[in-house]
Design brief:
single chain, 11 helices, 24% strand, binds beta-L-fucopyranose
Length: 474
């Protein structure tokens, strides 16, 4: 999250905080029943394993790459699919350089054309001129991912505009069969991305996708695989612009509309059954999801802004990079992605050494050795004790440009608002006010001055904050 109030302390105009700024800490404002219910809503094993993931890539590639469409009709001839220079190693290499941790391929988009030689329909890559019908892009990309140390995932559109059985019970057999092929033939799949876009036929004729069966198939074949978007493990953030909410909650009402502006506040969840359902933001490096000649990639500056908003705002980032009809990622996109990756690596290359950590209230803070665990990014955490709402971090005088905080989500998501103060020559100066933390909150300051410490004041929380990790970068 990039803060405009970044030049804090600029020209010494800000007044130091006074004692009264530290009198009030978090409280439960009376509705403990609601708070207790929410705190019982906790992540499943798959979600816990996924907490370490920040940013991964989408590849939209298929028949649309050759027709210039975003949504194919399902009638385009397989003979159009002929990427003459296709090189999945080139994709994997540049995505890895950008800092990406995994790749999700559109094995089948809404047009129904399959990028692997499925036995369940002829509308697939075997009917194309690519490698004389012997190609398999799913296999090629999964191999390249292994080679470059990336996780591999699948997008398999439930909406299928080609398949004749669509919108009948036979289609559910067909779709589950396709999942079975993909989840048994291509090694480990870290994510299946179920797109919510659907045909008007669904619901109107009383027919629907048998999602429960799809989930069961995935869970049975690959128990660690995350089922995203129209699945139960990761929710769509609600837009394709990486617009993250100020409060991004991983605990939300069951069956909620993901596009609502308030999903998880006390008001939004009061009296409702809640589920643990963390957010993912999908956005394309270009305007479209598929490649179009006239479109250009976003700038490095824009991508960094997206990264900090999303990854620093309790969500994961799914960045789409569409290869061209040649079967390569455009040079222009490669250049942006490389610089983006290098810049990010540099921005986290100067961790600040903490000399003292203390927790307390405005009058008294105590240092406890166990608190140092929260600088280690592991599976321990510090639970604030009765009356504690302040965390103080001291270090030798240095510039702080990034603060990373993480809650221990196995105890659910708690913090609702907090202030960040910066310590300079013994006094504290207010630097930022933020709302949720969740799995990861990153606060970025431009042109920071030198400081000797940071004070976090938890103003509102659903019971005692449980802080897993805190880190500061110069
Ligand atoms: C949407 C689809 O309709 C788009 O074509 C694209 O695949 C995007 C990621 O999801 O729902």
């Amino acid at each position: 999250m990039l803060f405009s109030k970044s030049d804090y302390l600029k020209s010494g105009k800000l007044k130091p905080a006074s004692e009264k700024d530290f009198i009030k800490g978090w409280c439960n404002i009376g509705d403990t029943f609601n708070v207790d219910t929410q705190l019982k809503t906790r992540p499943n094993e798959r979600q816990i394993k996924f907490f370490g993931t920040k940013y991964y890539s989408f590849i939209h590639f298929g028949i649309n790459t050759f027709t210039g469409k975003e949504w194919g009709s399902g009638q385009d001839s397989p003979s159009l699919f002929n990427p003459e220079k296709l090189d999945t190693d080139q994709w994997a290499k540049v995505l890895k350089q950008s800092g990406s941790e995994g790749v999700i391929l559109t094995a089948k988009h809404h047009d129904g054309f399959c990028l692997w030689p499925t036995k369940l329909t002829d509308y697939n890559i075997s009917a194309s001129p690519y490698k004389d019908g012997k190609g398999d892009v799913v296999a090629e990309l999964s191999e390249s991912c292994k080679k470059y140390g990336l996780k591999f995932g699948i997008y398999l559109s439930p909406w299928d505009r080609h398949e004749k059985t669509y919108a009948t019970d036979a289609y559910n057999d067909f779709y589950a069969g396709q999942l079975e092929e993909l989840l048994t033939g291509y090694g480990e799949i870290f994510m299946v991305w179920l797109d919510g876009a659907r045909d008007p036929k669904v619901d109107v004729h009383g027919w629907n996708y048998d999602f429960e069966r799809y989930y069961a198939t995935i869970n049975r074949l690959q128990p660690d695989c995350i089922i995203a978007n129209e699945g139960p493990d990761v929710r769509w953030i609600g837009n394709e612009r990486a617009a993250v909410r100020k409060q991004e909650w991983s605990v939300v009402p069951k069956g909620c509309d993901p596009t609502l502006s308030d999903l998880g506040s006390r008001k939004a969840t009061a009296g409702k059954e809640t589920v643990f359902y963390p957010a993912e933001a999908d956005i394309s490096i270009r305007r479209g999801w598929f490649w179009h000649k006239w479109q250009r990639p976003k700038s490095v500056k824009k991508l960094l802004d997206v990264y900090y908003r999303v990854v620093g705002g309790n969500a994961t980032l799914l960045l789409n990079v569409p290869p061209s009809p040649a079967g390569l990622i455009d040079e222009a996109d490669c250049a942006v992605l490389k610089t983006f990756g290098q810049t990010l690596a540099k921005q986290f290359s100067h961790p600040v050494k903490i000399t003292k950590i203390a927790a307390g209230d405005g009058n008294k803070t105590v240092s406890e050795a166990e608190m140092f665990n929260i600088t280690k990014n592991n599976d321990t955490y510090y639970k604030m004790k009765d009356g504690q709402y302040i965390l103080d971090f001291d270090f030798n005088k240095t510039r702080i440009s990034r603060i990373v905080l993480s809650e221990y989500m196995q105890r659910s998501q708690r913090v609702e608002s907090y202030d960040i103060y910066v310590k300079k020559d013994g006094a504290y100066y207010h630097a930022a006010s933020r709302e949720t933390i969740g799995n990861r909150a990153i606060t970025v300051f431009k042109n920071p001055p030198e400081a000797q410490g940071v004070r976090i004041v938890f103003r509102q929380s659903r019971n005692k904050p449980c802080i897993r990790y805190a880190a500061f970068f110069g």
